[in-house]
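User: I've been going back and forth on whether these two constructs are worth ordering. Before I decide, could you fold them both?

Assistant: Sure. I'll take them in the order you sent them. The first construct and its structure tokens:
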Amino acid sequence: MLFRQLFDQDTWTYTYLIADPQTREAALVDPVIEKVERDFQLLKELGLKLKFCIETHVHADHITGTGKLRELTNCEGIVPENAQVSCASRLIKHGDVLQVGNIKIQAIATLGHTDSHMAYLVNGDRVLTGDALFIRGCGRTDFQSGDPGTLYDFVTQNLFTLPDETLVYPGHDYRGQTVSTIGEEKQWNPRFAGRTRDQFIELMNNLNLPNPKKIMEAVPANEQCGQVAIASS
């Protein structure tokens, strides 16, 4: 399997490239519109055919590159079920499996950061956790119908039940970390380790974080697969 972790320094976002080196089929998870040229060039250099752009959720901090990549490559845009994204090529629900060559990408429901969010288990040994679980942290729950109790339930029941050695690749990192494991996060993640559900809810309800800078433009743009930004650029 070809697996690349790509970074957008302006929004601290990780985009993931997954490809089968034999069939040359590829998928991008959480592409960023400002990095479409980089991602498209990389696909060309590696001789890959983009089959899917896959979203973990409707992002509030950056605009997706899916719409532009779909124009360039005719890939499918995959969005979690119940997201308000009518332009998606296909909605994906918990347990669904996308096939990229011989690579299996399985959707795992991880609601709570927003009311429609998926993590993706890739080839059974690594999980792309989006904003549901960060390295020593997690996504906030105070907008887009977020709910801390729901996030606690889905992380502890759907992610922390994966094998401890499962690699964790988050949607963002703000401290320069790139990869962790489920076992590490169960032991050392300060949002979850040693906390009851009620304690987690109290913690999340008192973070008092400012809104993301791009929330007013990013959410409506992402509900249209990033096409608003393309039309105005």
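The second construct, handled the same way:
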Amino acid sequence: MPPTVSTGADVVAPIRVPLIAWLLAVVALGVVYLLLQENGLVTTGQIAAYLHEFTHDGRHALGVPCH
């Protein structure tokens, strides 16, 4: 059996991402943005406090100021 030689064409193949995946990514980023910016803008009262504390450490990890 002769040795096979890679031409490099089989190494890089384009990946086709479905449109629904792009749409879901945009919606997910929008939700993350709203969660990160939530400081009583969308919700108020106890719900805002719970949401703030739930996402508190993640906000700081991403560099979003909240204090």
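Notes on the second construct follow. The mean pLDDT is 78. The longest helix spans residues 19-37.
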